[in-house]
Amino acid sequence: MPSDMPENVKPKGPIGRFLAAPADGVGKTIIVAVSLCLVASLVVSAAAVSLRPTQKVNEVRNMRINVLQVAGVYDPEVSVDEAFAAFEPQVLNLKTGAFSTDFDVASFDDEAAAEDPALSRALDEDPAGIGRQALYRTVYILRDDVGAVDKVVLPIHGYGLWSTLYGFIAIEENGNDIFGLQFYQHAETPGLGAEVDNPRWRAQWNGKELRTDDGELAITVAKSVPAAGPDYHIDALAGATLTSVGVNNLVRFWLGEEGYAPFLNTLKEGGV
Ligand SMILES: Cc1cc2nc3c(=O)[nH]c(=O)nc-3n(C[C@H](O)[C@H](O)[C@H](O)COP(=O)(O)O)c2cc1C
Question: Which of 63, 66, 134, 148 could form a disulfide with 113 if both were Cys (CB 3.0 to 4.6 A apart)?
């Protein structure tokens, strides 16, 4: 009982009884601990909710920077939005390889589409380890001054060792030469699988080819050079074979028949 309260005065009401209870009593300790947890969780929830719009803006900005970087047109001196305006986003129908007019490209939500049963499919064969594949994807077209395609930037994702890696691959106007590849999100181990972000490793992708002259998908991430030759070879990461296998699988899935092959064919034939 607090020392300033006369011993013969009984505390009134629950608050009075709480204040009068000994500070180191079990009841008071539990009530104070629970109240603190409640207040702290309210503060954290309020912060999370109020910061959500800012996070969304940052996510979009980060995605745009990655599109610019993988296409080799990122300049830190130039506003991201201004530079990104050079790209033409399109919602691609993966199966037909044609752009879809069924969606508003500005508001199309790729993440939601990938989970919507009407806009995605469950994968029986799933080398990329993604479970479901959206039937439509937002892709980014970069055109030259006369409107001809310069590069296309295509989103790719798939499982590595610990995490799903999300990134972009940039393909030249011929639909076959790789300009670059980079991931913007993953949780592979720093120094091992996370070396997918190492600029020296990424530089290997520039100039490599997807398909041989007879149309076989030959690009391979492996320790040894594939039969098709060095033009199709990306050296696997040392000490990170499993992440490398994941990257090989996801790249081959997304650039193959189940992914962007129909679109890249259209591109090759000049139909984009
Ligand atoms: C703590 C820890 C983290 C690891 N992280 C990765 C990783 O991110 N990616 C990966 O492929 N292997 C990782 N490995 C190694 C794999 O378990 C495996 O040994 C490796 O992929 C074999 O590659 P190597 O044949 O090139 O040595 C990790 C191992 C340990 C112990």
Answer: 134
